[in-house]
Amino acid sequence: MDENAITLSINGRDTTCFVRNAATLLYILREKLGLTGAKPGCLNGDCGACTIDVDGEPMKSCLMLAVEGEGKKITTIEGMKQTTIQSQFIEKFAFQCGYCTPGFIMNCHALIQKHPDATDDMIKNWMESNICRCTGYKEIEDAVKTALRQANQNTDG
Amino acid sequence: MISYDFDYHKPTAIQEALELFQALKKQGKKPVYFSGGTEIITLGRVNELVTDAVIDIKAIPECNTYKQDNRLILGAALTLTNVLDLQSFPFLEKAVAEIADNTARNKITLGGNICANIIYREAVLPLLLTDSRILLASLDGLTEKPISELFHQELQLKDGELLVQVMTDLEAIQLPFYIVKKRRQWGVGYPLITVAALRKQNKVHVAISGLCSFPFRNKQMEDSLNNEQLSIDERIEAALKHIPATVLDDVHGSDAYRIFVLKNTLRDILRVLGGAENDG
Predict the structure, then answer these.
(1) pTM recorded for the entire structure
(2) What pLDDT, in 10s, does the model give residues B77-113?
(3) Lowest mean pLDDT among A133-137, B59-63, B107-111
(4) Same domain, yes or no, for A31 and A59?
(5) How many CA atoms lie within 13 A of A101 on its CB side?
(6) By the 8 A CB rule, do B175 and B200 touch?
(7) B59 at the A interface (CB within 8 A)?
(8) Mutation site for A-interface testing, chosen from B79, B101, B105 by largest number of A Cβ within 10 Å
(9) Where does a domain end: A44, A79, A114?
């Protein structure tokens, strides 16, 4: 199988790796780069467990080829350090088994960055992209709403 | 993981993409244009779509166009999120807002949905009803045609032809519309049926997805729905006779249930968009 060298900007660092054109970004993150925070779930774009941030937008890394990532700013859960949403997931106990948590956090973080004034409808619309099989949705909702409030307080202050 | 390999090309001009397509064909390959690529990746993973070369069109400026003068021009490589954020075409926005989910819409493109294998392709419905036009590129040059002329079950593209843009008159964008996606349950997922309607010159026009294995707009169906000599129920019964293919009968719903839901939805449409006021 042919592999080509590409350079990806991940979590603030440029990384060159050899990839097959047909390899998804999820596969390369996990199997070539050791970034196992993005989780393989359905591999079909349905569950959101593999969500990462690409140029400020949440992206399902199972729906993206690694070669498409060249020239883009990619952030994975490993690149998130003590963000408000992470603290709130702990504070509100917004996880049970934890498998979906990195994907949820990446999606929530992008929502807070892009729409700090997100309405309840918008929060629901964004969160529909991720599935929690432990059904911890209420706690996740509490976490994201508290993080949004904190983000607004910080902006106001 | 996709088990087979393919070449990946990312041209920056229409001509380059078209020439690449032909060159790859001459090498004996089966190239496909790749926009959001979500379907190529997901179907490729289960070997339902096999290609040995993809041509990514996202770096072609014309495919990323957004222009608005006397008509709205949308590039085929705009994502569904782009279409929503532009807030220029409420009918289309309402249709695409229900496709997949918010994160997936950051990857799925307008052209990708129109040309998809998936049977629903709801973005097509408002385009059919607003008599939108599409810009196609081939080695013979650029051609603009009404989408109604080229969309028969699927977009009839010639080998190597590229969907570049979609154009819609602003006048058509401002017409009253109605669109509803009925699911068996929940607010996310594949539809039972999606019905879209537009009121133009006192007539109601209808396009449907999820009823048959392709989206469609049918003139005889519309004539029946606008026949004021008949009662509303008679109009709907007459319209149902013009469903162009077998009604789907699957896990999302039986054929009889789909027809039941369609009848009620058509009744809602005639009530909301007019036409029901002369119910005989």
Answers:
(1) 0.95
(2) 999 999 999 999 999 999 999 999 999 999 999 999 9
(3) A133-137
(4) yes
(5) 20
(6) yes
(7) no
(8) B101
(9) A79
